[in-house]
Amino acid sequence: MERFEFTYPAQKSLPSHAQAGVVGSGDLEALYEPASGDALVVRVATSVDGSQPLWQRFFDHLIGVRELPAGQLDINDFGATPGVARLRIEQVFEEASDVR
């Protein structure tokens, strides 16, 4: 199990915390916690050894196509494909932006 952390510039935080996905074989769980400030801290725990450069490229690309919210994003990855990773991250940000 590898663990690593990235920090990215961010815009305003989203209004609430959220969770998307389920930890399990071939899937990914994303948990978002809003915070004031101008950064998104991404903490990744993954079962895939040597994947830090892939995650770095993933988020470097993501910041180029969308604004990231301020706060903390915890990712628990158990071999999800890049498509599933993107889906779960978009889902967690969408859920956190819903004010109920």
Automatic annotation (TrEMBL):
Covalently binds the prosthetic group of malonate decarboxylase. GO terms for molecular function: acyl carrier activity. GO terms for cellular component: cytoplasm. Keywords: Cytoplasm, Phosphoprotein. It is found in: Cytoplasm. InterPro entries: Mal_deCO2ase/Cit_lyase_ACP, Malonate_deCO2ase_dsu. The modification O-(phosphoribosyl dephospho-coenzyme A)serine is found at residue 25. Subunit of malonate decarboxylase, it is an acyl carrier protein to which acetyl and malonyl thioester residues are bound via a 2'-(5''-phosphoribosyl)-3'-dephospho-CoA prosthetic group and turn over during the catalytic mechanism. Belongs to the MdcC family. This is Malonate decarboxylase acyl carrier protein. It comes from Rouxiella silvae.
